[in-house]
Amino acid sequence: MNTALLMIRYHEIALKGGKRPVFEKQLARNIDKMLKRTFGSDAPIKVLRQTGRILVEAPWDDENQAKAQQTLEKVFGISSFSPMRKVDTHIETIKTAALEEFQKAIAAHGMPKTFRVQTRRSDKVFPESSTDLDRIFGSHLHAAFPDLQVELKKPELRLGIEIRRNQSYIWSQKFPGPGGLPVGSNGKLLALMSGGIDSPIAVLQILKRGSPVRFIHFDGAPFVGPESREKAEDLVRLVNQYQPAPERMHTIAFGKIQEKIALVTDAKMRTVLYRRMMMRISCRIARRIKALALVTGEALGQVASQTLENLVTIDRVSDLPILRPLIAYDKSEIIALAHHFKTFDTSVREAADCCTLFGDRHPTIYSTPAEAEEQEKNFDVEALVNEACEKIESWTFQDSRHNS
Q: How buried is 259 (Cβ within 10 angstroms: 0-12 exposed, 13-18 middle, 19+ buried)?
């Protein structure tokens, strides 16, 4: 089996100045972890850092290389990647290898009408500029295929050549990565994970900014069936594919707490009161696991509980920042991202939502903190928070469920 070589490119990391090596090392670690989740911890995979690039070497056949590519598409921090051909850094050797790679691309994808050679010099081994080298290698290819036309902006076939001092690299395919920053380069967060469309997309947008995310789910049992919890678990599995290590989900038994709140409060206020209770409990758990902030999938004005007035009322009880990456998104934008990340089909499975339990068909949309505090005088807030945190259930999706 031949050794396969993949070259990883990044963009935002390259703008980090003196901190750039820290981000590069984190990205390299994440690539190694995620590939070994795919192929096994003892897989002979080498992840090597070079100037402006990361190289991955492994003894993969075509099938395993395709699996590797599917994994790399989920590694935040990668802007693009390419299967590479490695050659000695000599003009004639590169010309020969470039022609072979060009012929291989034509055999796989058919004869193009236009092409371009794009040379990048990390080391100034040759006196010629990158543009001069483009012409040298391009002329060699054109001599072999005289009907091809050069097109610099949108060529049908692009051949890339990376010049290094001892070894150079040639590619003809470029696959997009998810971009952003490597997970682990920012602090840990705790996300409120429902079974809906929004919360998994909010988490993925946060992962793209480099923060690992743990999950908390509020289960309305015994007043709702297990479907909502199962959806949340399945969504966490999907989202965890984008983290170098799967993070736990903490499940809160919330149905009985909602019942106690509902018995003594105004029906129109209950959804806001539930959300305030969720924030208090989430803050308690976040501090326990050393998460620095909460994440929700709320979008301004999308539903009654997400008006600005209600968000202000809900936020008042949180002693941690609440991050809402979808705050300005409309529903069609969120749905498009759910299709892109393949969470949509799971999110739209039928399941009851605990947030509407015992609520009014026309809940308040203009609550104030004072109104919520007045309602909360009717029940023991601290006792209910303690009750929830004592019955928390936590698991990693790799082991059996256990109390924590």
A: middle
Nearest CA to 383 out of 291, 260, 295 is that of 260
What's at 262, amino acid-wise? A
Gap between the Cα atoms of 296 and 321, Å rounded: 11
SS3 state at 101: helix
CB 184 within 8 A of CB 245: no
- Longest CA–CA span in the chain (Å) reads 86
Q: pLDDT by residue (tens digit) across 359-398?
A: 678 899 999 999 999 999 999 999 999 999 998 998 876 5
Q: Per CATH, which fold does 4-176 belong to? A: VC0802-like (3.30.2130)
Pairing of strands 393-395, 402-403: antiparallel
Q: Domain spanning 189-403: which superfamily?
A: HUPs (3.40.50.620)
**Residue type at position 160:** G
Give 111-151 as a DSSP string: --SEEEEEEEESS--SSS-HHHHHHHHHHHHHHH-TT-EE-
Contact (CB, 8 A) for 310 and 364? yes
In the structure, what pLDDT confidence band is assigned to residue 358 with cuts at 50, 70 and 90?
low
> Rounded to whole angstroms, how far apart are CA atoms 56 and 139?
31
Query: Which pair of structure tokens corresponds to residue 216?
Result: 């908390």
Q: Which residue has the tokens 């305030």?
A: 276
215-255 pLDDT, tens digit each: 999 998 888 888 889 999 999 999 999 999 999 999 999 99
What is the domain partition of the chain in residue ranges? 4-176, 189-403
